[in-house]
Amino acid sequence: MAIAERKSAAHEAASCGGLVRTVLAGRGHTLAEAFANLAHAPGLQVTHHPTRRLLGARMPLLAEEGDGYFDLTQIGSDVYVIVADVAFKYPRLESLPGDGLIQFYFKLAGDLTLAVSRTEPLRLNRPSLLVYSQPRGVDGQEWIAPSARERSIAITVRPSFLTEYFQTSSVAVPAQLRTLIGGCPGRFQYCQLPLSAQMFEIAARLVDNPHTGTLRLLYTEALTLALLCTAVSGFDALGDARGHEYSEHDLRRLHAARALLMRQLAPVPTIRQVGRAVGMNETSLKRGFRAVFGETLFAFSVRCRMQHALLLLREQKLAVARVAEAVGYSHQTSFATAFRRHFGVCPKDARPMRRIAAASILSSVKPVAGGKRAAPNAVLE
Fold first, then answer.
1. Which CATH superfamily is domain 2-238 in?
2. Which of 35, 194, 245, 264 is placed for a possible disulfide with 365 were both Cys, Cβ 3.0 to 4.6 Å?
3. Domain 248-362 classified CATH 3.40.640.10?
């Protein structure tokens, strides 16, 4: 009977495109409601650790849904963790009713789009960290593209948890995170940050959790807290910029600028060209881009170009000279220098990578050597 109920829930999720919330609580329910049903969900083996107040279960996909699983863990009454390693056969759509919580979404791989009433849809198809606050009464949706292998960690917390654990006499919550914790009634707020090599490594270990039973719960708790610590420290790189409020028109233009940089890898557009294309002056564009997306236009452009270069080297196995040209470098030596500064390895050594090296490279964020950025032939400097 339990299996039949599980298949019925999965069929409901598939018919309306749902994910974890739909399976556990029905369409349109909150994350807290879904986890409240976890202990009694049919067909799932639930593990408890009463001393640490941990509860968890693995929710595998049925064959008709796709391949993979979700690992669900609740830590106390304030933290909900969803580890995803899934590939769906068909697009999946989940309704996200506002529940007043804050989510740290660590994207390792896949193709997920998040849409809320205030902003243009956010498409997350590369390694990154998205932190957002969704107040009550503000509904949204997320959908996953079919066949894309989704590897991600979603850590959802109550605002009071962040204040209690990180607002101490010696450690202050970064300004932009304070803005998210304070919230804004009726308005979705978010900040997108680069995924550092340290975040990528911890998140990958959590997705590939080798343990079972209560040991799996303890391992998840430890790595969840480690991820939150690295995420909070990541806000420090944004400086003390306050959460400036941008109109929907400004947000559309900033998203258009980001899309242009992702699309036009060669020749690399100047900041002036990007500004003209989206209708913003250079100062507003640079300030708004950093405030909304958590990095400069130059850093984002380099990251996109280096990721595309890595893809061309590893999957299409193009010659280094052709790859350099494809990502906006006139000289192979300049490209090789930029690639090495960004990834820590030469282009010719990027093909036969071991797993550990690949994890570091695919994080595609802060340069490994000396904190330097790409070679100065990139015109976005």
1. Jelly Rolls (2.60.120.10)
2. 194
3. no
